[in-house]
Amino acid sequence: MTIEKQSSFGGLIAIDLFLGGAGAGIFFISFIMDLMNRFQNITKIGAITGLILVLMGTIILFLDLGNKSRLYRLFINPSSWVARGTYFITGFLIFGIAYALFSSNFLGLVLLNEKTLVGKVVGGIAAIFSFMTMLYAGMLFSTMKRIPLWNTPVLPLLFFFSSLYTGMAFLILIGNLFVATSMEYL
Q: Stretch 84-92: mean pLDDT, rounded?
């Protein structure tokens, strides 16, 4: 077996993987904590921060895209892990933004806030898409047979737990910043 250096993915892809995983992890943990009625202010900030990070990663991924006129092809082949990842990220952003708007009561619609059934269902769908977003990069890499180190079923779990740990670290940082700032005004 020869070791082959990968040349398909560059630095921008690595930045996207970090931002996408961390953002999905932050959102997922924030949603779970919000369901448990824990740290409500931090979870609202966390959900929005997670969406911003995933959106930034998506923009970076778009910048890395070679021929931008073929962007539509990302949605065509549902058997491809790249297409599935595109579906997961798109669904996550759509439902995550809707949930963030509900939970911040930005629209002033009491019927659609995060405590109602509709708000929880939208948040749950966004959380499912964030869960799939955390897994998909590992699934994509684990199908690459030319790089034996990546071709393992453990890789999706590694990406999932890495996303969760990074999300937790960001939430702790947000919590410390939030508590530190709110303590100044007491």
A: 90
